Amino acid sequence: METILSVNNLTKKFGYLTAVKDLTFSIEKGNVYGILGPNGSGKSTTLGVVLNVVNATHGGFTWFDGTTSTHDALKKVGAIIERPNFYPYMSAEQNLKLVCKIKEVGPEKIREKLELVGLWERKDSKFRTYSLGMKQRLAIASALLNDPEILILDEPTNGLDPQGIHQIRQIIKKIASQGTTILLASHLLDEVEKVCSHVVILRKGEKLYSGRVDGMLASYGFFELKADNNEALLNFLEKHSGFGQIKQENGLITAFLKEEMDAKALNSQLFEKGLVLSHLVKRRESLEEQFLSLTKNQPNQTAKA
Amino acid sequence: MIRLLHIEFIKLWNNKSSRFLILAYFGLMTFIAFVSSLKIDYGPLKFNVADIGLFNFPYIWHFNTFMAAFLKLFLAIVIVSMIANEYSNKTIKQNLIDGLSKKEFILSKFLTIVAFSLISTVFIFLISMILGLMHSSYDEVSIIFSDLEYLLAYFVKLLGFFSFCFFAGMLIKRSAFALGFLFIWFIGAEFIPYVYIAANKTKELADSIYQFFPFGSMWNTIEEPITRLSVIKNAVQTVGEEVTKSYEVHWYELVIVLAWTAIFIYSSYALLKKRDL
């Protein structure tokens, strides 16, 4: 695997506040990464450091194989952080031409990228006349001008209306499908869940988890069951060695698996016992449930200190 | 280098107010120069500036560079706002993320300052040349091209002043406040203390201290040309005073300004490097 970015023991302090604490993770080519954490957990600070606009207190990071300087590496990166920043008195096209100059690429791609985000018709309008959604889309077009190896997005859907959010997500998916590595910071779990394959979870500047989204908990998922005879069903489940915790809520039984088992196997076992189900669903915990259980399990270290 | 200048040019030229101020600066320079060379012939009032020798070579180099230097205030606004706007639009952050290094960012601004100073110097050279050729009583080539060091002093003076504006913009990040800071510095840190020392101690002491201050050193680069005019000289002499002053450009005065330029530019770089954006 080709490493694109590795962050090593990164710490950033703002006065007394430790925004990022001893953070280590790496980004491999071709995956879609999410940095997940509540507001103020250090996501933007981490991205600021690797993007050369925030100075690290300790530790560091290397782009690609570590031989290129940060600002040269950034020419191969596309990034949008927090809010779209452009010159308000210049048109979209003029702004992108300027970015091309900075990134040292030709202006040929401007049309293609503006069309990708649906702004080609508005290319001559001044940036300050744009709506927030359009600004955000222009920022994406700008980040893509150099066909970057990695696209970094910090809360790209923040403050957008549902239609704007949908448009941005479609664009991200389109870009991801072309094989571009993506690093997406968000506090929206379903956003990360919908787009990312890997996730780094931060809380108060500390890493709680990093790895595949579906490997977050060593979990086999759970069944949602309903039968005419719920008593007998509960009895069966409690005796079964494959199940751990069992809950009953409004007539719906939730049984958590301790080992791998598919729905078909369970159904046939129950049928042999003469139990007929009216409802059978196998599910995995959503990222939200996993996230909450993960943050719950961790002692609050900052509070201790 | 061309790339950095071009980047800055795009930013400046597309900004209406910057473009207006730049054009106004050069326009005003030309306008004043040619209006002042008009003969005033209005009834009993007959006056021709050329007659008192204002446009004689090589005096014109001295006079014009001294006068034109006051107009630099126009460009000061452009320079302060070209820095402060980067902060208020947060485009400085985006520039760095897009792959401009902090050094390149400072360099692109500094090169622009150099370009402004250079263009302005060339411009004043051309205007003075034209005015001189039109009105000067002397037109031998050796006289025309003497005393050109005033142009060098003019260039250094502008460079130093613009670097100060640049630094103020970097430090304060808001155009209006940065201009205010420059003004307060001028009045509070240089002008009033200078007058105070000159009044209570001696003018020599005040001069010797303030030649090392930013505005003081810039002021020193070109000595005032008024008392050098024969008309004024004669007038002063009839009162019984003698003007004993050296009007030359002194190399060490230029060095002081250049040292300030270096300090301002380097401090701006150090500020940017240290700051979290």
TrEMBL record, chain A:
UniProt-listed SUPFAM superfamilies: P-loop containing nucleoside triphosphate hydrolases (SSF52540)
Keyword Nucleotide-binding appears in the UniProt entry: yes
InterPro entries reported in the protein's UniProt record: AAA+_ATPase, ABC_transporter-like_ATP-bd, ABC_transporter-like_CS, P-loop_NTPase
Keyword Protein transport attributed: no
Keywords: ATP-binding, Nucleotide-binding, Transport
Span of domain ABC transporter: 5-229
Origin superkingdom: Bacteria
Any one Pfam family match given in the protein's UniProt record, by short name: ABC_tran
GO terms, molecular function: ATP binding; ATP hydrolysis activity
Record family assignment: Belongs to the ABC transporter superfamily.
Protein name: ATP-binding cassette domain-containing protein
Organism: Poritiphilus flavus
TrEMBL record, chain B:
UniProt entry keywords in alphabetical sequence: Membrane, Transmembrane, Transmembrane helix
Keyword presence, Transmembrane: yes
GO molecular function: ABC-type transporter activity
Residue ranges crossing the lipid bilayer per the database entry: 20-40, 60-84, 105-131, 151-172, 179-199, 251-272
Gene Ontology annotations for the cellular component aspect, listed alphabetically: plasma membrane
Cell inner membrane is among the record's keywords: no
Protein name: ABC transporter permease subunit
